[in-house]
Amino acid sequence: MMDKLSMQTKNLADENYKKLTELFPNIVTETVDEEGNVIRAIDKDKLEMELATKVVEGNEERYQFTWPDKKKSVIASNAPTTNTLRPSREDSVNFDQTENLYIEGDNLEVLKVLKETYNGKVKMIYIDPPYNTGSDFVYEDDFAEDMNEYMDRSGQFDEEGNRLFVNTESNGRFHTDWLNMIYPRLKMARNLLSEDGVIFISIDDNEQANLKKICDEVFGERNFIANFIWQKNFAPKNDNKYISISTESIYLIAKNKAKFKRGLLPREEKHNKGYQNYDNDPRGDWTSGSILATTFSESGVFEIVSPTGKVNLPAKGRCWRFSKNKIDELIKDNRIWFGEDGENVPRIKRFLNEMPDGVVPQNLLLYKEVGSNQDGNRELKDIFNTQLFDFPKNTKLLKRLLTISNVKEGIVMDFFSGSATTAHAVMQLNAEDSGNRKYIMVQIPEETEENSEAYKAGYKNICEIGKERIRRAAKKIKEDFKDKEGIENLDTGFRVLKLDTSNMRDVYYNPADIELNVLENQIDNVKDDRDEYDLLFQVMLDFGIELSSAIEEVQVASGKYLSVADGFLCASFDYDIDTDLVKAMAKSKASYAIFKDSSFKRDSDRINLEQIFNELSPNTEIKVI
Known about the structure:
Layout (H helix, E strand, L loop, with lengths): L2 E2 L7 H12 L4 E5 L5 E5 L1 H8 L18 H9 L5 E4 L13 E4 L2 H12 L3 E6 L19 H7 L20 H19 E11 L4 H12 L4 E8 L15 E8 L10 E2 L19 E4 L14 E2 L5 E2 L11 H9 L3 E2 L9 E5 L6 E2 L4 E2 L1 H4 L2 H12 L10 H11 L3 E6 L6 H13 L2 E8 L9 H4 L5 H19 L14 E6 L5 H4 L6 H6 L10 H12 L7 E6 L2 E6 L4 E4 L6 H9 L4 E4 L7 H14 L4 E4 L1
């Protein structure tokens, strides 16, 4: 029996309801809604008993963070989507081999589309969302149309193309609009992170307090790791009315803090200063540290006698950090230093060759170490020979965050990609340390303004800038590292995908709403402008197959079929599928075989196909769209 694919994402609210009722089946009940319809419900009293915890409801006082429309924002994050991603081979670089993705579209819808496929697979996310500074931003909770339709419908441009919406403080929804934008996106982002994964979020002072509260709610307060302070400017701005702002925050939050292992920064010569071998110890250079404890304990007060016979006691109110037995062991192992003349206060020796391979990162990010806004501008100008983008982050900063995230292989995501600094940094760091990081960039195709340098240079939207930056940066990286062994294997390509409405006609999802005469005239349930690769990528999403997976066109005498992920799935979306093609697909022993409903003109064609698979590959599941 052929099953039909759903070709849409799951409703997360339904999934959450299912998980809860599996844990506590006795809490399931029914009630009547405002229109008199019988609907599912949860018995609050029974849930409260099961958890042995008070369930707060209504106007009862509690600690919470809320804002107008928060409920709608939660619903938006859970709602399913029928949207899909369509491949664009002509915009891509090395489409058939690359494992990197560049996705054009509103990031909330894209994150929903990616959820099943990349759930728990992303090692690091970095985002630099639009700051709530009185400027405008184009993100909305519904993006099922092209950019012009979207802008026109949302009232953000007048008839002459001038932008109308500016999120000023007098708006009345100054914080609400921004919070409604960021909240569902962070909810979706958490789903994509691996258990040891982390997210970095750049933010300025206007919303950093609110962002912290949202992150505490979405990720759990216990999973907050650090607030990095980045020195983005090194010179004061004398035209500032109050204070010249030189820093901004970068939050680091883990999916599961207990499983995150932070990376160490490379040791530099400055970190080794102070290490010498004062006593010709065969273990090499060392430095000394205090053996006094930070908290007092009576058991830590005892005499330590130096080789010269001098008796050492901790100062009044202080104690040694080690026990007497441990101190005796350290002295015996020549790990306690009493000074060249043996008369100094005892200190412990720390050997350079026993130090970690790197340095523990600090939350202070100085521009001398990680670059500034000016460096980001300079990098982009060097690539394009003009300034196309205002204040992009620089690659040095992103490489520092990548190092801290401790990801040397795996998926790195940026769903506010902008000028694609994150993709540039991933390629650069892979070239430097032979890493195998892959990236997923997501960017809404916001149009550039006609008087901008970007528009004058021929870039009509931000995505065009990002893709071209990756192309040019890749070329330069290959040139800079041309003498490095294995550099030819560096993945500098990217597969472009574009968010669009479903490939399927409405009849596919709502057959009950279609009149009989329409069904009789309906030859195909696939839209006219969609090809086999459009269908294949929507099927890959439905099956949770990574969108960077290899795709092979397998030729047979009567045509071809598509083989995905080393033969895991095979598909043919032709109208007339003959027996030879079906046999070839069956012999591939794929786990799944996919066909179009309209490929079968008669019921006998379906029966014949099922018989062939039952004979040649009985374990293959056959699906239709």
